[in-house]
Structures are given as structure tokens and as C-alpha cells.
Amino acid sequence: MPRWAIVLMVVTGALCVLVPVGGVVAYVYASGRNHEDLRFPSEDVTVARCAPDPASGRPVAELSVTSRAARTGTYTVTVEFLDARGEPVGRGVGKVAGLAAGATGRTVVSGPAPASGSAAGSGGDGAAAGGERAAERAAPRCDVYDVGFLAVGEEGP
Question: How open is the CA angle 63-83-60, to the nearest 5 degrees?
Fold first, then answer.
């Protein structure tokens, strides 16, 4: 077999291996660069306070939203309320509209039903039932379930 044919086969084989590997490496590099500033709206929301409403016993979440978005927009936050045992009580939705980049807004979200074991309806001030530890056990838990962000000028779904 002539020498040029052997060289051609080696070069062709090397290209068949190196081109796909190089393509994968280039894709991974470009993908990482394109997504390095990727952010999720849920990172902008914190639960500032979660407690039962003294009058109704429904869980109430006070939310703080600090916008790190590049544009002014509206945050729609869904909160899941859990009772003292960790059982879901329901969900509520809050909205912070027209929040500018870098600004902080607040909203209050109430649960749809009283949390079982909450302070309201327990028939006392909590001191007779074991003091502050009983009150802590009766406190609901408020978890950020979902956050949507819609920039000004964008159309919703």
C-alpha cells in the first residue's frame, strides 16, 4: 500500500474522532458562557415572616422581594402553607407589581384555611400549654412554591 494512502487513512480517522470531540467541547464552553448570568426569580424572594393570624388562625406570610432583574417587572409569588405537622394547608398568591431593578417590595399572602394546631382557636394564650415551645410547634411553615417574573412590555401566557 502506498505511503500517501496510509497517511490519508490516518488523517481521516483522526478527523472522524477529533471533530466530534472538539464540537462537544466547544458546545460545553459556549453553553457555560451563555448561561453564566442566568438567574431564577425565586432567588429574589424571601419569607420575612410566617405566623398564624391571631383573629382567623389562617397562616400569613410576609414576603420580601428584592429585584435582581435587568428590567422593571412584576413578581407573582405562590406560597404553600404547611401546618405544624408539615401537612399542606393550601396555597396563596401574592404580587409585587412594577418593581424596578435593585428595588425591594413587600407583599402579604394569607392561607385559604386555618392551620391545624394554630394559636387561634386553641382556647388559650399558649402559656398554659407549655409556654413558648408549644407556640413554636403550632407555628405554620410558609414555603415559596413558585415565582413568576414578567418584565414590563412582555405579554403573559
Answer: 30
